[in-house]
Amino acid sequence: MDKTHLVDEITGHRRMRRNRKADWTRRMVQENRLTVDDLIWPIFIVPGTGIVDPIAAMPGVSRMSVDKAVEAVKQAADLGIPAIATFPDIEMNLRDETGSQSLVADNLINKATAAIKKAVPNIGIITDVALDPFTSHGHDGILREGVIVNDETVDQVVRAAVMQADAGADIIAPSEMMDGRIGAIRRGLDASGHQDVGIMSYATKFSSGFYGPYRDAINTSGLLKGDKNSYYISPANGTEALRDAALDVEEGADMLMVKPGLAYLDICWRIKEAFGLPTYAYQVSGEYTQIKAAAMNGWIDGERIMMETLLCFKRAGCDGILTYFAIEAAKKLAKS
Ligand code: PBG
What we know:
Helix content: 40-55%
Largest sheet: 8 strands, parallel, barrel
Distance between the termini: 46 Å
Structural class: alpha/beta
Mean pLDDT: 96
Strand order of the largest sheet: 1-4-5-8-9-10-11-12
CATH class: Alpha Beta
Oligomer: single chain
CATH superfamily: Aldolase class I
CATH architecture: Alpha-Beta Barrel
EC number: 4.2.1.24
GO cellular component, one term: cytosol
GO molecular function, one term: porphobilinogen synthase activity
CATH topology: TIM Barrel
InterPro entries: ALAD, ALAD_AS, Aldolase_TIM
Number of strands: 12
Subunit structure: Homooctamer.
Strand content: 15-25%
Bound molecules: ligand PBG
Order of helices and strands: HHEEEHEHEEEHEHEHHEHEHHEH
Low-confidence stretches: none
Radius of gyration: 21 Å
């Protein structure tokens, strides 16, 4: 029996494997590519000097004092990484009900920004304005009688954003999901002469279990009372996420972010399709840790899965990825 003939009858001479047959054909037909320009590196800052303190739940990630962070960011810039995102681990005695430390001009996060900007002027600095690193209850906003109050939080977030811009932040990334924050921050930045400071909205931030290791990293997990379901989006809701993002676009967001990443690739795609704005995914702490932990046990090829997941964000329409793998991935890209 002529088996070739049989298969051709089924395929009608269309054979997908022709384009996959050799390395050169595969390179010719490759639709998406990951480059170092796609990588944004989130880092954790602690007070003090000379500190590089490994985070147990995030193998390979450390909290760094400002001086060490400056060195690390220099390395990131040398690798070609375009931007970093900073998160502070604030001393416990400085945390309070309203997160008042967020309004101190030379607080830890602003000190880090100023130092990094001075030492490494050619890397972008993205700062978050959510209040969770600063509050004694670990919530992203001001807590009054069991409720995270929206408008009062927005007011504070705007003032914090202006201080962050004063310190040298290039992009403000509000992650606290209060209503109206993007427009309010835009007006606040414009009124204080920061027309060139951009806003990357954590447009669709889902209420997720994947944030666990991050909360250990900035020591909020023991503090958090209740959950964040009254302001983050339910993982069940895609259309609601799009409506939320639409408001951020209307209010003046320059860039949009989807968080977490891998379990929300449909949202990345829908957001990019709907608005066409630069769109980023945050491959969050729990996603990183899953890969690291399995790799450390020898159960998966961690490096391969790191590169695969990052590439898949590109396929899903993302223009870049906030990832704790940034340095590792950048080094790998430089070698290949
Ligand atoms: C809160 C915030 C979170 C992350 C960064 N800022 C989520 C949270 O703690 O609820 C998560 C980042 C990560 O998991 O890597 N504003």
